[in-house]
């Protein structure tokens, strides 16, 4: 009987060792999963920051170009005003003034049309770029969300498995210890 109990105890100790090793492996896997998710989140944040910086840089470049175009337009307008003022003061140059005004108006229209076309082009490119950035950000957000859901599910599965294994071990220990305690108590009662 004592020999059987000794073998049973050895089996129980072996089972506890196996259980402990299994828990360590699960702990390592869990840590690796959490570290991987952390790295992925860090990389996604870096990508998002790079996208934001690129968008801001492009918008700044567009603003600068529009400012330069507007300054040129203003200079042209000021020049047109000066020419018009000088021509109006000289009646004998009415014909020349009319031709110059027509030419200036045409150039002004061309400049305004060029600025308008450039502005429309930049606005269209800006809309397309914003759409692209928005879709990329949405995709990244979806990927992050899916990663969190997957990690949460894995963590829950691991916790459920750990709970089941712990319950099994407790029941095994109870099944083993209760008969031993009963036997010892019985032995003690008969002895005394």
Number of helices: 2
* General shape: rod-shaped
Assign a percent range to the helix content: over 70%
Query: In the residues, how many domains can be counted?
Result: 1
Largest β sheet strand count, sense and barrel closure = none
Euclidean distance between termini CA atoms: 21 Å
β-sheet strand percentage = under 5%
| Rg measurement, Å | 41 Å
Give the quaternary arrangement of the chains: single chain
H/E element sequence? HH
Determine the structural class based on helices, strands and strand pairing: mainly alpha
The residue ranges in which pLDDT falls below 50 over 5 or more consecutive positions are none
Mind explaining what this structure looks like?
The chain has one domain (2-191). It has helices at 2-89, 94-191. α1 (2-89) runs antiparallel to α2. The protein is mostly helical and 192 residues long. The protein is rod-shaped.
């Amino acid at each position: 009987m004592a020999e059987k109990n000794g073998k049973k105890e050895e089996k129980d100790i072996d089972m506890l060792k196996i259980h402990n090793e299994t828990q360590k492996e699960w702990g390592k896997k869990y840590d690796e999963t959490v570290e991987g998710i952390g790295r992925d989140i860090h990389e996604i944040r870096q990508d998002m920051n790079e996208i934001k910086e690129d968008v801001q840089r492009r918008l700044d470049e567009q603003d600068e170009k529009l400012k330069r175009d507007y300054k040129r337009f203003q200079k042209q307008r000021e020049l047109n005003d000066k020419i018009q003022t000088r021509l109006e003061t000289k009646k004998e140059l009415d014909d020349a003034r009319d031709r110059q005004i027509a030419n200036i108006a045409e150039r002004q229209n061309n400049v305004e049309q060029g600025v308008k076309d450039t502005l429309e082009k930049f606005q269209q490119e800006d809309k397309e770029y914003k759409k692209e950035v928005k879709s990329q950000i949405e995709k990244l957000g979806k990927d992050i969300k899916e990663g969190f859901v997957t990690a949460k599910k894995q963590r829950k599965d691991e916790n459920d498995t750990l709970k089941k294994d712990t319950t099994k071990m407790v029941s095994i220990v109870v099944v083993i210890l209760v008969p031993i305690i009963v036997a010892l108590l019985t032995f003690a009662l008969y002895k005394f």
